[in-house]
């Protein structure tokens, strides 16, 4: 059996930034337009007036201060309220592949590996641009990688499930090197007209090179152990899909065809599940809370991360122990924990242990225990 290691990481960050202030200005203008259009129904008690949002509300509810997106012109236009991403010709690179390509090249450069040395590409993300052909195969072709490729979707846990899949293949000897790529265009499935969630998501792409540890050319993170778990729940859901066209009325602008969640139930049910999952994983591997130098958690909500950090460590995390990046990136689904890892891991000393964890719709949770080497 071979051992696997993370030898390179890469992050592609879009140029467009939307601050909470800019987002609120657009949303409140939309709310005022909606209220004016439906004034008679509101006065008759047949409709409820749409309340304003505020930057203070967003920060208190999530810890988010801004987000990066592939397009902000449509999102900030009260007459549009969604990104404007023009269709591309079938023979042009897809947007997801283009984003993934940039992150992959950065990860390959860090690992000192050429694309031709890659045996597997996994595109693991929440929202795929198309059903087929696989985005992963397109990334493989654009990179000039070898081997094979496939897409995965385990919602916000896609990255850690992808890491386990690649690691298991390396352990079994079926591949030597893999790229796990997470291009997330979350802005396209978010309902920007919903006050309760219009601030949650941003866009980004991340990539990890995972290879046999004996092939690593420099400092790396040995993958000590991986663990994944799922439990079905409807509390985070998106009903969009190809069967939509078979159902009268479903091709219209419908709220349930975008991101939906029952936030209170998610908070109540997911947090104990994640804390128990991490505790069980650490116990099985003989890792005590004091052994962990770093926690790279899914970046959905600061309160959630603070809760998990306290449960895992048995105390409030010290500065730097549990880095948050959602204040800058917002929730980027599967990519969040990988952004945190990529930006807050190089400072660890050899022998230091860390844990990557992602969780979300499904419900799903994945954890990866790593050790700094070299």
Describe the fold and architecture:
- The chain is globular.
- α7 runs parallel beside α8.
- The relative contact order is 0.17.
- It is an alpha+beta fold and 374 residues long.
- The protein has ten helices and 13 strands.
- β4, α5 and β5 form a beta-alpha-beta unit.
For the structure shown, list the relevant keywords.
374 residues, alpha+beta, two-stranded antiparallel sheet, 10 helices, 13 strands, globular
| Uncertain regions spanning at least 5 consecutive residues | none
Major sheet attributes: 9 strands, mixed
Quick check: average pLDDT? Answer: 95
What would you call the structural class? alpha+beta
Pattern of helices and strands: EEHHHEHEHEHEEEEEHEHHHEE
Short description:
Helices cover 32% and strands 23% of the residues. The chain has 10 helices and 13 strands.
Topology (elements, then pairings):
Elements: E1 4-12, E2 16-19, H1 20-37, H2 39-43, H3 55-62, E3 66-69, H4 95-111, E4 120-124, H5 135-143, E5 148-152, H6 158-172, E6 177-185, E7 203-212, E8 220-230, E9 236-237, E10 260-261, H7 263-284, E11 292-297, H8 302-313, H9 326-329, H10 336-343, E12 353-360, E13 364-373
Parallel strand pairs: 4-5, 4-6, 11-12
Antiparallel strand pairs: 1-7, 1-8, 2-3, 6-7, 8-13, 9-10, 12-13
Helix pairs in contact: 4-5, 7-8
